[in-house]
Structure formats: C-alpha cells, structure tokens
Amino acid sequence: MKYSIENELLKVTVTTEGAQICSVKRKCDNVEHIWQADPALWAKHGPILFPYPSRIRGGFLTIKGKQYPADIHGFAKNMEHSLVSQNENTVVLELKTSRESLALWPYEFRLVSTFTLEGDTLHHTLTVENPGDEDMQFGIGYHPGFAVPFDDNHVATDYELRFDCIESPLCLKSSADGRFGETTYVLGHNIDTIPLDEHLFDNDSHCMVALKSHTLGLYEKDTGRGVVCGIKGFPYTLIWSKPGMPKFVCIEPWHSLPSPENGSIKWDEKPAAAVLQPGEAWSCTLSTSFVR
Asked: How many whole angstroms separate alpha carbon 204 and alpha carbon 185?
C-alpha cells in the first residue's frame, strides 16, 4: 500500500513495502527526487537498514548459539510494514515481531517509521522499541536514493555533492563483497564539494567517518536546486551509486557498522547503534530538505 502526505511545497508518498519513501515531488516544478526503483539497475527507493547495515561476514548471524541467515542490510527492507496513523502532514508505519522475523532474528521488537513534512523538509524518524524480556542490541541506518538528473536539460555531471564546511573525508575501505575493513583512505583534501562523474563509484560506496559537516547535499550546479540531508550526529555517512554515470545517488547516514571485515560472527560481539533493556526505546531522525 502507498500513502501520501503533502503541504504547500511538497507531495510525499511512502510505501508499506519496507517503509520506503517512494516519491517526493516539489510542487513548483513537479520534479521527482526519489529514484524510481528500476529493477535493471537498483530495485529499491531507499530501504531502512535494520537490524544491521551492510553485509555480515559469512552471510549468517550467530545468536545464542544458533545460526540465522543474514541478507545485506537486514530484513526490514523486505517486509510489509503496517499503517499506524495518517493525517495531512504525517504518516506512521510500524514493523513488529512476527514468525517471519523470528526466523531471521530471535528478538521481540517494534520498529516505527514516522514521516513528517515541515515546509520544504521531510523528517523520517525511526524508533526502535524493545517489548521483550531480554536486552536487545541492533544496528540501523538510512539509505535514500535520489534521482539524477532533475530534468531533461541536465546530465549527471551537472551535479555535485556539497558539504557545509571544508572536509578531508576519511573513508573506510570496503572489501570486494561490500564489507568494511580497517584500511582507510582520504576521498579528498580540504574540499567542500565532490563532483559527480562516471568513475566516482567504480569501487562501490564511500563510507565517510567523523565528518564535521551538519549537512551533505546533492546540488544542481547552475541552478542551486538541491536535496540536502542532515547528517549531524551520525558517525558514518556513505555515498553510493552503481558504477558508471550515476542515475541516482544515495546519501546514507548510519549509526553503526555490522563489524570489521574479519570481526566476530557472534551477534553480541558486533558494534551496535544501541542496546535496549526491556521496555526501552531509541530514536533517530534523518531530515531531508528539497531546496530551491
């Protein structure tokens, strides 16, 4: 199912399939800013990465002595979420423990996605609740995909990624199968922009750590139109697209990594965004502005 919210500036549509934002259109020019999930290239719009981002070594989790299959970016992205409430400016979806989820991760949980419009900004708040009777650790991240170009008068090289201050982005190098090791590299020295070109994503994503910037945006150079993500408070910010000339760019603030490339396969030894005791909850918000 799809649900829409809107105000005087934006119309936003979310889908219960993975609780993804599947459309954001600015009313002044009707530009579609969300990647439309072409299966020939990438069949998602912007998945929620829960209960872990990225890949798990060996393709399985070991929890309390039992093995569980581990797909890339967790299972929430593939499941049907349920509507909790909707009004003109807000829609709330949830995913709760089920027989399907327990076959992949043996914890009781509730994952709530709250989408709220405020002017030209869409806030996406993720709340994780532990309704069970044991401690629950988890990882989490965002993965929105933004379409480029914005119109037929531009091409991908007319765009750049822009920080709000000078950065020398330190990145964690990923292995050939997408897991992150301890090797680092610098994406650029004393820069505030990263131009899009056909080679930027030749080696998959760039996982930037400890950025000073509060925002990272995808901007059209000649007009200033942009999609700007708030990244303050996120320890990792990734950028990703398929190799070649980008048709979309993902800006991905994460609160955790699954583990070092050669780290433990045991769940309780993996880095976590949070560890919740029974009855506790934890939240984070990605705010994205669609500027003109």
From this structure: 14
Report the 10 Å Cβ neighbour count for 289.
18
Contacts of 199 (CB under 8 A, 6+ apart): none
Q: Is the dihedral of CA 263, 44, 24, 155 positive or negative?
A: positive
DSSP the chain: -EEEEE-SSEEEEEETBTTEEEEEEETTTTEE-B----TTT---S---BBS--S--GGGEEEETTEEEE--TTBSGGGSBPEEEEE-SSEEEEEEE--HHHHTT-----EEEEEEEEETTEEEEEEEEE--SSS-EEE--B---EEES-SSTT--GGGEEEEEEEEE--EEEEE-TTS-EEEEEEES-SSEEEEE--TTTTTTS-EEEES---SEEEEEETTT--EEEEE-TT-SEEEEE--SSS-SEEEEEEES--S--TT--SBGGGS--SEEEPTT-EEEEEEEEEEE-
Which pLDDT value is given to residue 258?
Answer: 76
Query: Could you list the mean pLDDT of each consecutive 10-residue stretch along the chain, which spans 292 residues?
Result: 98 98 96 97 97 87 92 95 97 98 97 98 98 97 98 97 98 74 90 98 94 98 97 97 98 89 81 95 98 94
Question: How many C-alpha atoms does 205 have within 13 Å on its Cβ side?
Answer: 24
